[in-house]
């Protein structure tokens, strides 16, 4: 069967499903969410149906933190997960496996992910210089290539993929290119004003629908109402 994790980062998985169903979860300016849009509700109904109707996914929630091990132990034939798990799967799988782009309904699509480096204006010049030195080092093509090979995360620039190390690695292990090639279908990761609080409401809605505590429509309606309250001050 299939396992899509619904703990840890359920909003991230859900955004992918919604995009594939032809609808973004938020406006580009970060001021409006579309949680109660019919296409978004249909998306959550589809996710739930994978267990309740189609029987290819466990009922309730699927744990993010243990999913990789579940895949390695043969508890699921397919998993949705971060590309940052790829090298660990490659090293530990006792079977042949493949990597594919996420599927689509109305379109292909996936949100981007990853971490960020920040320079804060209230830090000292010395701290800023040190931070910038670290950022330059971490994002240099050679270092980005080494990080990609060691983990499975994408290289942060095209230049990383032009290094001899990453060219050789991807030639010997083409699955390492799948996530990068999926960028042509990608959209920005979910982000609004008050992102953490808005996102928590969405996460709770997803989990309450998957566990049967609420219907998808009611759960997302509640999340939309909460998001409107949180975003009102910024509109």
The end-to-end distance, rounded to whole angstroms, is 43 Å
In total, how many beta strands? 4
Helix content: 40-55%
CATH superfamily of the largest domain: Periplasmic binding protein-like II
- Which fold name is given in CATH as the topology of the largest domain? D-Maltodextrin-Binding Protein, domain 2
Rg calculated over all Cα atoms? 19 Å
**Overall outline:** globular
How many structurally independent domains? 2
Percentage beta strand: under 5%
Determine the mean pLDDT: 97
Low-confidence stretches: none
Query: Mind telling me which CATH architecture of the largest domain this is?
Result: 3-Layer(aba) Sandwich
How do the strands line up in the largest sheet? Answer: 1-2
Oligomer: single chain
CATH class of the largest domain: Alpha Beta
Can you summarize the main beta sheet? 2 strands, parallel
What's the helix count?
11
H-E order: EHHHEHEHHHHHEHH
Q: Report the structural category.
A: mainly alpha
């Amino acid at each position: 069967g299939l396992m899509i994790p619904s703990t840890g980062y359920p909003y991230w998985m859900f955004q992918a499903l919604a995009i594939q169903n032809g609808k973004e979860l938020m406006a580009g300016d970060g001021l409006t969410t579309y949680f109660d849009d019919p296409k978004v509700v249909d998306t959550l109904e589809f996710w739930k149906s994978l267990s309740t109707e189609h029987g290819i996914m466990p009922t309730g929630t699927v744990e993010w933190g243990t999913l990789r091990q579940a895949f390695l132990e043969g508890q699921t034939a397919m998993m949705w997960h971060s590309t940052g798990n790829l090298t660990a799967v490659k090293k530990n799988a006792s079977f042949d496996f493949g990597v594919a782009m996420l599927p689509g309904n109305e379109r292909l699509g996936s949100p981007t992910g990853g971490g960020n480096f920040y320079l804060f204006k209230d830090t000292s010049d010395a701290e800023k210089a040190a931070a910038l030195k670290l950022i330059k080092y971490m994002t240099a093509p050679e270092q980005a290539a080494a990080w990609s090979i060691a983990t499975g995360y994408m290289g942060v620039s095209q230049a990383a993929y032009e290094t001899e190390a990453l060219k050789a690695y991807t030639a010997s292990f083409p699955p390492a290119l799948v996530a990068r090639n999926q960028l042509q279908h990608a959209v920005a990761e979910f982000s609004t004003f008050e992102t953490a609080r808005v996102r928590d409401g969405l996460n709770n809605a997803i989990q309450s629908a998957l566990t049967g505590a609420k219907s998808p429509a009611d759960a997302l309606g509640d999340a939309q109402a909460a998001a409107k309250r949180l975003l009102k001050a910024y509109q």
